[in-house]
Specification:
Helix content: 40-55%
Number of domains: 2
Distance between the termini: 58 Å
Largest sheet: 5 strands, mixed
Order of helices and strands: EEEHEHEHHHHHH
Oligomer: single chain
CATH architecture of the largest domain: 2-Layer Sandwich
Shape: rod-shaped
CATH class of the largest domain: Alpha Beta
Strand content: 15-25%
CATH topology of the largest domain: Nucleotidyltransferase, domain 5
Structural class: alpha/beta
Number of helices: 8
Number of strands: 5
Length: 238
Amino acid sequence: MTPNKFLISDASFDMRTDSAGIGVIDLHTKRKYMQKLENCPDSQYAEYRALILSAQIALQNKYDNVVFVYDNMTLNVKMLDKHLIDRIKHYQFLWLKREYLHEADKLARKAHELQQTIYVEQIYDLVQAYKSYSDNSKLKTMMLIATSEQRKVLKAFIDKERHAGFQLDEKNIHFFRTAYGLIQNNKLKKKFLNFLNRHFYINIFDREIFKKQSKKHYAAFIQSIFDTYKQKTLKTTS
């Protein structure tokens, strides 16, 4: 029988973003593997996916005497066991305490940090690309995700009308605060703010509601515009 080949797996889960990083160390080749997971339901799922990655590595390398090491003692490995039973000659699952899997844990965290870095870079690119649009183009694209009332106000402003014919309540502040923040031209920003103030029941100047918001906030807003546009395009072409 060939010597044991140890594959050590671990995961790092972030419940705030429903994302995770998984890491596997192949002690036979000294290679390290890491992946990022999105829409991850919980840490249990992430740990199981890390173990599955170990199995995939063993199969790819045609290992025939494998020890799969993990630190979550509540994992149910029966399904994975059935999948491997006719594909690897000798193997076993070995649970160890977390402190013995320190390197795999570090690798999983690194994978998760990499995912967060990529996400931040995507946000930056998205906001920068959208800012290059003309201000009128931005306002027009905002109509894609606007309510019927918000759309009428935007259209009235673009068409240089004095009033859209009705007043807005406080629930509309969030949308127009973001729209205001995306306008680059200072003269147009002032006009837009004055126009909005005529359309709210409240005096928006007293609320200081139009302070700059975070890059992530603008990116989420812009992403929803792009997603809505793609959905409308798909419906049109289908």
